[in-house]
Design brief:
By secondary structure, the chain is of the alpha+beta class. Helix content is 26%, strand content 30%. The protein folds into 2 domains: 89 residues, Phosphorylase Kinase, domain 1; 58 residues, no CATH class. It starts with 6 loop residues before the first strand and ends with a strand.
Length: 160
Amino acid sequence: MGERSRAIKIIGQKDTYEYYKENTLGKGGFAYVFKGRRISDKKDVAIKKIFKRLDYGKGEVEHMEQLSKDSKNIYTVKLLDYSYDNDEELYLILPYYKHGSLRDYIKKNGKLDTQTAGSILRQLVSCLTYLHKDKGIMHRDLTSANVIIQEITDDGKIIV
């Protein structure tokens, strides 16, 4: 998909961590997303590379970091770390969820049953209400590819 695996150095708030970009998970209108690994402890992560053309300044990243620390926020992906590469490209380090996106799930398993679709919709409404009403944030790219499945419970319930 146009990007090669390579080691990248991420300068965090507290320490310097190195991450290795592995395979490309996807490409959207705003970014590439890779599966990656933190070298120090071999923890799997997702690495989101924001396209250069976007004006994504340090203020936006700090805002995302604050949102990640909010304990009431259970539906948005936590920002683990970030780095500006050559002051042009932004890498966001996020948790890696092995189940992938809702789009991936539907491609693999077919159409959702009514109960599962309703559960996912309720979770999305709760998330968007929190972001829009409580935090004044508008999600600019809500698609099934951007709905990440955190967990599939033993009884088959999907947690996004």
